[in-house]
Automatic annotation (TrEMBL):
<keyword id="KW-0472">Membrane</keyword>
<keyword id="KW-0812">Transmembrane</keyword>
<keyword id="KW-1133">Transmembrane helix</keyword>
<comment type="similarity">
    <text>Belongs to the SPCS3 family.</text>
</comment>
<keyword id="KW-0735">Signal-anchor</keyword>
<dbReference type="GO" id="GO:0006465">
    <property type="term" value="P:signal peptide processing"/>
</dbReference>
<dbReference type="Pfam" id="PF04573">
    <property type="entry name" value="SPC22"/>
</dbReference>
<protein>
    <recommendedName>
        <fullName>Signal peptidase subunit 3</fullName>
    </recommendedName>
</protein>
<comment type="function">
    <text>Essential component of the signal peptidase complex (SPC) which catalyzes the cleavage of N-terminal signal sequences from nascent proteins as they are translocated into the lumen of the endoplasmic reticulum. Essential for the SPC catalytic activity, possibly by stabilizing and positioning the active center of the complex close to the lumenal surface. Essential for viability.</text>
</comment>
<dbReference type="GO" id="GO:0045047">
    <property type="term" value="P:protein targeting to ER"/>
</dbReference>
<keyword id="KW-0256">Endoplasmic reticulum</keyword>
<dbReference type="GO" id="GO:0005787">
    <property type="term" value="C:signal peptidase complex"/>
</dbReference>
<dbReference type="InterPro" id="IPR007653">
    <property type="entry name" value="SPC3"/>
</dbReference>
Length: 144
């Protein structure tokens, strides 16, 4: 019996901050929950293949809107109940793997926060909640 050896592959993790205002999405009486997910889109320069991976996700129920930190509120000012999202120094939930096994030919990625809105009644809708200001540079891989 021959055993299969797992191939050596590079994996990546991402730390990120998110600041966005989701007022239009969460203030409707028909909003039941909101599914947020962070993706990275990149091109492997060796194969010229485009990839998109999900790195983080979270479900926000209508009653959880006030659990998020308010953005831009000065010290001492009352907190607003507006559904603004602020996530500081979060880690990716899912491991980022390149199908080619290596990030050697991947130098930058476009990071985007997407949403899917689930209403009480009606059709699901989805879109882009925020995008990174600049492309995220992928550093050279450190080998052990």
């Amino acid at each position: 019996m021959q055993r299969w050896k797992a191939r050596d592959e590079d994996i990546a993790r991402l730390r990120f901050d998110v600041k966005t205002d989701l007022t239009p999405l969460l203030t409707s009486y028909n909003t039941k929950q909101l599914f947020l997910y962070l993706t990275a889109e990149y091109t492997d320069e060796a194969t010229h293949e485009a990839h998109e991976v999900v790195l983080w996700d979270r479900i926000i129920m209508r009653g959880q809107v006030n659990d998020f930190r308010a953005v831009g509120v000065p010290n001492g000012a009352p907190r607003t109940t507006r559904p603004r999202i602020r996530i500081d120094d979060a880690k990716s939930v899912y491991t980022w793997r390149n199908p080619g096994g290596s990030f050697q030919d991947v130098h930058e990625a476009n990071v985007t926060l997407h949403y899917s809105l689930m209403p009480y009644v009606g059709m699901l809708s989805s879109g882009v909640a925020a995008t990174a200001r600049d492309l995220v540079e992928i550093p050279d891989v450190k080998r052990r």
